[in-house]
Amino acid sequence: MRALGCELPGLSRKSLGERNYPPGQHGQRARRKSDYGIKLMEKQKLRMNYGLTESQLRRLFEDAKRFRGPTGDKVLELLERRLDNVVFRAGFAPTGIAARQLVRHRHVLLNGKPVNIPSIRVRPGDVVTLTDKAGKIEMVQAALAEPSLARPEWLVWETEGKAIRVSRVPSPDEVPFPVEMPHVVEYYAARL
Q1: Mean pLDDT per segment of 10 residues, for the chain of length 192 residues?
Q2: What is the pTM of this model?
Q3: Using CB atoms within 10 A of its CB, is residue 83 exposed (0-12), middle (13-18) or buried (19+)?
Q4: If 163 and its partner were Cys, which of 47, 64, 129, 183 is the partner (CB 3.0–4.6 Å)?
C-alpha cells in the first residue's frame, strides 16, 4: 500500500498512518513518475486490492471489451461482481484475501449450493450465505461485528446477517478506493 500510495481495503485493514511515503531507503525523496509508471501504478492498485494475477486481470479486461459502453466502467463492475469480493464487501471477512479463502474452503453458499471458485460472477437476485460452520469461525464473527467497509447499497441483508442478496449491478463509483480507470484502459490498450 505504501508503494502504491493509497489505502487498499481489500488488501489490509491497516492504514498508511504516518509513513505515507514509499518504502525503502530513498522513499521520502520526491520522485517523478513517467507516463508508463503512472499507468502501471493504477493497474497494480486493481491487482492488489482484488487479489488477481496479471493473466486474470488481462482476461477480465478482454471480457469487458466485448460489452458496449466504457471499458473501464465494465472492468470495475466485473471486479465488484466476483464472489470473493461480494463476500468481503458483505462484511463476512476482514479482507479480500480472507474472503477468497472462505470461498476456497467451501464456507460460502451461492443460491443454497456450496461453491469454491472465488471468480464466479454474481448476478442480481443471487443470494450469498455462510455455512453454519463458517458462522462459528472467530475471524468471521469479528468481521461481522466490525466490518472493514460500509456495506454497499447494491447488497441487501436478508435474515440475521448470515445471508445477503445482490439487488443490482454495482456502479463504478462504488469502488472503495481511488482509481483512475482511463490509465488502466490505456495500459491494456497498448498491450492487447
Answers
A1: 72 70 71 86 89 92 91 92 93 90 95 94 94 92 86 83 87 85 90 79
A2: 0.84
A3: buried
A4: 129
pLDDT at 136: 92
Which pLDDT value is given to residue 85? Answer: 92
Angle among Cα 56, 54, 92 to the nearest 5 degrees reads 60
The whole-angstrom separation of Cα 108 and Cα 92 is 10
**pLDDT value for 177:** 81
- Cβ(185)–Cβ(62) below 8 Å: no
CA atoms of 166 and 156, how far apart (whole Å) = 6
Beta-sheet strands, E only, within 76-154:
108-110, 113-115, 127-130
Task: Provide the residue type at 135 as one letter.
Answer: G
CATH topology classification for 82-168: 3.10.290
**SS3 category, 157:** strand
- For residue 63, the cross-strand partners are none
CA dihedral 171, 93, 142, 109 (to 10 degrees): 100
Tell me the three cell numbers of residue 69. 459502453
Determine the distance from the C-alpha atom of residue 96 to the mean position of all C-alpha atoms in its chain, rounded to a whole number.
6
- pLDDT value for 125: 93
CA distance 37 to 34: 5
Type of residue found at 178: P
In angstroms, rounded to a whole number, what is the distance separating the alpha carbons of residues 137 and 83?
Answer: 19
